[in-house]
Specification:
This protein has 64 residues and is α+β, with helices and mostly antiparallel strands. It is 20% helix and 45% strand. The chain contains 1 helix and 5 strands; from the N terminus they run βββββα.
């Protein structure tokens, strides 16, 4: 699971085996995880992040 970015408490990474899906990134913090499509940037699924954190993560993805 190569890390592509660390920003604050968030680690952005991908799985090498995710070949048959649109471009996306996984994000984790502590025991929370989410998956975001990249084009266009949008939440695909989330496990534990609240809405304000999702919005913060979306901004980080758009910036990078």
């Amino acid at each position: 699971m190569p890390t592509v970015l660390r920003s604050g408490p968030y680690r952005f990474f991908f799985y090498a085996g995710d070949r048959n899906e649109p471009q996306h990134t996984h994000v984790e913090r502590d025991d929370k995880i989410a998956k975001f499509w990249l084009s266009p940037v949008r939440l695909q699924n989330s496990g534990g992040f609240n809405r304000s954190e999702i919005n913060r993560i979306l901004k980080i993805i758009v910036e990078h």
